[in-house]
Amino acid sequence: MSTVHQPDLKDRPARLTVGVVGAGRVGPVLAASLQLAGHRPVAVSGVSDASRRRAETLLPDVPLVPPAEVLQRADLVLLTVPDDVLPGLVAGLAETGAVRPGQLLVHTSGRYGAKVLDPALRAGALPLALHPAMTFTGTPVDVQRLAGCSFGVTAPEELRLAAEALVIEMGGEPEWISEQNRPLYHAALALGANHLVTLVAQSMELLRTAGVTAPDRMLGPLLGAALDNALRFGDAALTGPVARGDAGTVAAHVTELREHAPQTVAGYLAMARATADRALAHGLLKPELAEDLLGVLADGADASRGGRSGEGTDGPNGSDGPNGSDGPDGSDGTTGTEGNDR
To answer: What pairs with residue 173 in β-bridges?
Structure first.
C-alpha cells in the first residue's frame, strides 16, 4: 500500500512555482488564476499552434518547454491533457524519472480520481485530482468565471487540506468526490453540460429554419428561466406538451422534425421519453394521458428505425442522421476534455 509523505510545510515556500503540461483550454487558465493568488508560473508545454497562442495570451513570458522540463522547473504541475492520454502520460513521466519527490502533481480530469497518479506517487509525488465543473473557452474571461466554480476534489486524506486550499486560492469551491464515484460524477456533468450545448445548438438551427432572425435572443430568456427553475425546483419545473400529455402536439413535432431536420428526431424522441417517465413518476403527467403520448413516441422510434410503417429511414445508411458524437467539446468529454491540447 502506497504511503503519501506530506512534506513539512516549514520547508516549502509559501508560494509555489507552477508548470502546465498540456496548454489546452484549462491549464493556462488555472495557472493564470494561481498567479493571481501569488504563485509563479515558470513553464508550460504545448504542441499545437492554438496551444502556443493560448499560453502566450494567458501566461506571457512563461517559456514553452517539453513536458519533462516542466516537471524539472515546477513545484506544482498541472496535467491538463485529454482523459485518454492521462494514464500514459503519468506512467511515462514516472518511468523517465521526471517526477520529483515532494512535487505536487495535479490533474484536471473529471473521469479519474487520484489513483491514476499512482505511478507518480511511487516516485514520491503528491497526487491531487482537481476538476473544475465549468466549460472553458481558453481565454482570460475564464479566470473570472472560476469565482464560485465548484471543483470535484479527490486526493489522499493526508492531502485533502492542501487540495482544498489550492481550489480556494483559484476562487473555486471544493466538493469532495470519492475515488469510486468519479466516473458517475463525470457522467452527471457531461449529461447536463455537454448535452445542453447540443440541445441549444439544435434549437437555434430549427428556429432559423422556421424564420426566426435572432434565435439566440429568443432563447436566452426562455432557457435562462428554465435553467433557474430546474435548479430551484427540479422535476416540479417541467412544462410543455410532454409533461401535459399533449400527444397530438408531440406527434406534430415529430412530423415536422422528420421533414425539416431528420437528424434531430432520435434526440427529440429520447428526451421526450425521459421527460415523460419523470413527469409520470412525479405525478405531473396524468396516467390516462400517458398511454397515447407513449404510443406516439414508440411509433416515432419505430419509424426512425424503418419499422412497422415500412417507411425508409430519415438519414443515410439506415440511421437518423450523421453518426457524429457531441464532441469533442471543450468541457467534460471523454476524448475532448477541457485540457485538450488543441
So the answer is: 150
DSSP run (H or E) holding 21: strand 17-21
pLDDT tens for each residue of 12-50? 445 899 999 999 999 999 999 999 999 999 999 998 999
Q: Is the pTM of this model over 0.85?
A: no
- Residue 251, H or E segment: helix 247-260
Chain mean pLDDT for the chain: 87
Grid coordinates of 331: 468541457
DSSP output for 22-86: --SSSHHHHHHHHHHTT-EEEEEE--SHHHHHHHHHHSTTPPB--HHHHHHH-SEEEE---TTTH
Output the CA–CA distances (angstroms, integers) from residue 280 to 74, 192, 244, 292, in the order listed. 55, 21, 10, 13
End-to-end C-alpha distance for the chain, whole angstroms:
37
Cα–Cα dist 51/341, whole Å: 6
Q: How many CA atoms lie within 13 A of 270 on its CB side?
A: 9
